[in-house]
Amino acid sequence: MGLFPFTFSRTFDQTGFVLGINEESNDIVAINNFNNKYYSNANISILGTSGGGKTYFMCMLGSHMLFNGYRTFYLCPVKGHELAFHIKSVGGTSLDFIPGSFDCYNLFEIRPEINLDAHELQESSSIIRGSLLAKKITEIITFTQLALGEREFLTSNERNKLNIVLTNMYAEFGITSDNDSIYLNKSKGILKRMPIFTDAYNAVSKHPELRRVLSAYEPFIYGTFKNFNGPTNVSLQNSAILVNVDEKSIGKEMFPCISYLGFIMLYNLVKESRLYQDALFLDELWKMLINDLVGEQVFELVKVIRGYGGAAIVSTQDINDMLDNKWGRAVISNSSIKILKRLEGGEGSECAKVCASLGIRSEKYISRIPKLKQKEALIITPQSKILTLLKSTELEHICFVTDAEGLRHRIEYMKQHNLSL
């Protein structure tokens, strides 16, 4: 979205994208979360209760970022269908990571990765370099633990043995700790054929001490999740990608490992190139953070993603679950920008808890947050707190709404204007 000349104010960044109008000064609110003059990182946390317009705002934020040249990736465990129309309207790609889907991302595929730009990182951030194979094996072991469930934990002997088995399996495909070994032709960017679940299952089956790992892989060989047993068959070249990891379709037991699969796919996309600036939207993030293995990796992403030219945009309507989780609190504190939608008010309420955690003491904001309308938000930056009237075009509004009345209006609008998607 192009910007026109306007009187500068503390709410207006000429390099940024428009979000709306400052309700107090009537100035345009435009931010650029990648502007390191103002922000130590590009991360954004969005907090709002159910029905408060969080999904609408995510669509608007993603749309405005997309039209300013960012790539936008979404991982949605709840109500992914509500974002699907927006993704389709901008020519994006929607993927269903659910049983029986035709969409497959190969867990065992190793993708190239650029070096971190250390200048973009906070001093406290660790810089991860090293073997792509070692990182992939760590991801596979984490996935395996998640597939086993919360009640069963891999022993150190099982983890070590699985590490060796996987290393030997990749060696049979000509892939070693030499990062260039993933290429069939590096100059043309052509990767070697990668293992799939069948290969891992066959390799593990030779080791009786890994029978629990074998059990974890069986749904992906013989069961309803066998659609993930194959090479990646989806295009990842689009600038807007939605990964729907619908918890109801997946089931509670398998949800952690499938959502983790979507997470590593999108994060690996961010790490592949510095030619783009990427926004990785992680909706209802707390659902992933309840597992410490994933929580640690998500927090590491939040700390280092700027070094890859990316930003983590995290959101939740389950405020207590997010704030009561050590990883959730760490993610929010490592977000330079916080955006509050409507929260339930009163003593001991969500609003009181959030305001206390963010150091908001002014009664002006504490009393206003529970009254925020769908197209209003409190934007909190290191420099200011901005009550904002969100602005979108009529067509954008049609694409973003999720309530029944809005959906009926969308149908009528499209009929009147002879539009179809």
How does this model look, in words?
The chain is 38% helix and 15% strand. The protein has 421 residues and is of the alpha/beta class. The strands form two sheets. An eleven-stranded mixed sheet has the order 2-1-13-12-11-3-10-9-4-8-5, with helices on both faces. β6 and β7 form a beta hairpin. It starts with 16 loop residues before the first strand and ends in a 5-residue tail after the last helix.
Please trace the helix and strand order, writing H or E for each element. Answer: EEEHEHEHHEEHHEHHEHHEHHEHHEEHH
| Average pLDDT taken over every residue | 89
Please report the distance between the alpha carbons of the first and last residues: 22 Å
Give the overall silhouette: globular
Enumerate the spans where pLDDT stays under 50 for 5 or more consecutive residues.
Answer: 1-9, 123-127
Can you give the helix content as a percent range?
Answer: 25-40%
Largest sheet: 11 strands, mixed
Number of strands: 13
Radius of gyration: 22 Å
Amount of beta strand: 5-15%
Q: What's the tally of helices?
A: 16
Strand line-up of the largest beta sheet = 2-1-13-12-11-3-10-9-4-8-5
What class, by secondary structure content? alpha/beta
Quickly describe the structure:
This protein has 421 residues and is an alpha/beta fold.
Features:
single chain; alpha/beta; 11-stranded mixed sheet; disordered N terminus; 421 residues; 16 helices; two-stranded antiparallel sheet
